[in-house]
Amino acid sequence: MKNIFYLGIAAILLSTACTDQETTEKVVGLKPVYGTIDDISTSIKTGPSKSLKQVGKIYVYGDKLLINEVNKGVHIYDNSDPSNPQAINFISIPGNVDVAIKDNYMYADMGVGLITIDINDLNDVKVTSFEQEHINIENTKRPPPAVTSLIVSNKVYFECPDASKGLILSWEIEEMPKPECYINQ
Amino acid sequence: MKIRMKNIITILCLVLAFGCSEDSVSPTSSESSASQSSGGTTGTGGSLARFTIAKNHLYVATESQLFTYSLENASDPQFQNSIQLGNGVETIFSLGDYIYLGTQNGMLIYDITNASSPQYTSAYFHVTSCDPVVANENYAYVTLRDGQPCRNGQNRLDVIDISNKRFPVEVNSLQMENPIGLGLNGNQLYVSDNGKIKQFDVSNPTIPLVIRETELIGVFDVIVANNKLIAVHPNGVNQYSIANNGALTLLSTIEKD
User: Which residue of B has its CA nearest to A132?
Assistant: First the structure.
């Protein structure tokens, strides 16, 4: 009986300690933004040209020059005269870092999957396919490196993904109670 | 030497000799700015790319895997398979029947003769790699870089004989400052290195000779095609024309806000 009593005390002490830690210690970490495939399709859209902010990778397709805006999408330039490239527009692709194009179909990563976009009409791009069944496996468990690299720390905390909440559309940087999940980078 | 360099974090950059030049005769070139082949019209990425299109297939290098998609219907890529590569995969480059992957354990070569099913061919493990891989029929130019996320290392440009894809052999290694992406225009090799675009003459492929340098703060990758060089840096994108002697003349700058 005495043992059970002590166990009970110990349990209370332990739980108190844990609660205290969780409520008091806050960190800047990454939080998944959940949604559906429809949300993904509607997030892909053409907008007016924007100025470059965080310059990513580049891709040349015919007389077009594409410049990635890290994790946001691609700037499209008419580069038929390389001494005077003209901004055409900006295609929003959340989480995007890489693209490749074949026959006016653009393949782009979104961190959460591989999207195919019909760019025949640059003013009205359309999502024709979205693949995440295979490629998404790594990133349903953790934020992709392109996102974790935005946090200047060897230890990157993130809210543990919960598949029951939907697809992960993107990751936000937020102050949060210290979560269980983290990555050493 | 091989053991000592094992822990060096590297950038592998293999540049295909014919891939980038306008007078390319490579029938499988994926490097011209809008190559038209049996596989349709595709574009050109830089040496830091994780996507490459070859032989009517899209190859995607994620952190640890290679994914293969058929582009038979370009609007709807069909998953073929995925291959575990180990951790720290950074870049992918294709030429002809091979794809080259830069990983933290070395450069991997896969045979895509059967495009929907890449087959492991060989690995160049004597260095630990970090970033780009671009390749050439016979020679690979490999940059090794120190610093984040590449931990402790050297800064070098290695030349690797890959004429036998099953047995890559290092044939030279040059001291560099902090090299990242690179590209090739005929016998001119351009390497982004610590705020400069360095031009090397590789007429003798095993002995790259520095010819001149063009200052560009933070330059991290280049695309070379049709006697033009496009350089990307934290403040924007510069475009240059390439003279016969390889000298760069600035054509334009797209500046960030």
Answer: B79
